[in-house]
């Protein structure tokens, strides 16, 4: 099955799943991009963000790529496995809450660019969580 079929939620995909599938694919794309940047530009970003551990970004990047792969796998199932979809939403919410909880502890360590990146990524992830919840509601209203 092609990603175009998933994007359009064409048969054999369940009807009314287009919004949820598109937001999930957007989440996967964002996670993939962020993961690759975290791996490929780790040294520069570690310095720019004043991150004390040089292995933090590369290891985070690998985890993001695994997460993105899992999202694509879930999204390409003909019938979305709702337990896994809710797990993705929960992980996104945990990321946002964790970022907010971490902020007071790293504000003296990270540079302004690092703090800005932390906040902007958390805002993006919260947007995906909200979009996924909206997609779940639309799917369940059928």
Topology:
Blueprint: H1 3-8, H2 18-40, H3 42-49, H4 56-75, H5 82-106, H6 112-140
Helix pairs in contact: 2-4, 2-6, 5-6
Can you walk me through this structure?
The chain is mainly alpha-helical and 142 residues long. The chain has one domain. The protein is 78% helix and 0% strand. It contains six helices and no strands. Helix 2 (18-40) runs antiparallel to helix 4 (56-75) and helix 2 (18-40) packs antiparallel against helix 6 (112-140).
Primary descriptors:
about 80% helix; mainly alpha; about 140 residues; about 0% strand; 6 helices
Summary of the model, kept short:
With 142 residues, the chain is mainly alpha-helical. It has helices at 3-8, 18-40, 42-49, 56-75, 82-106, 112-140.
DSSP E strands, number: 0
Global geometry: elongated
- Please describe the biggest sheet, giving its number of strands, its sense, and whether it closes into a barrel: none
| Beta-strand residue percentage | under 5%
Order of helices and strands: HHHHHH
